[in-house]
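Bit of a strange request maybe. I'm writing a small parser for structure token strings and I need a real example to test against, not something I typed by hand. Could someone generate the tokens for this chain?
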Amino acid sequence: MSLEPVVALLQRVDLFSGLDPVRLEVVAFTCERREYAPGDTLFEPGEEADCAWLILHGEAAMLADRDNGQPRALRLDTGDLIGETALFNRERRRTRVRAVTRLETLRIGRDMFQRLLGEFPEMAGAVAARIAERLDDAGTELRALQSRLARSGKIGGEEPEGGKDE
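Reply from user aminoacidic:
Good idea to test on real output. This should exercise your parser:
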């Protein structure tokens, strides 16, 4: 796969959407491409999270156990970015990701990503702006959820309408 389709996929990823195509070419060029056969594991729970993966082609499944021990799965397709928080934080993986079909990926290492942010301040600014927007969106969603829960009487000490005898 040439750089153009990789850059096009990176442009669709929320985290990278504010970057100019030249910087995205640098990301695409400096990252490692990896292929996986169906059933291969990209990572397991407990492993060090030192990179993110962009799915260039194929399908994967993210598998996690629910609190009740039952497994749950999330389908991942071409253009999905997996494990992006590893680009910013040292942490351990909480899920398992396996290839469902033949999978082509771009492995974006934390060290390389951090180095690019240091070398290209405008790239760091664009990424910071996207993260700030996402935090703002998350705050808006949390306030809406809090409002719905308060109206239902489940938080804030409020009783549902007509719920208390006087």
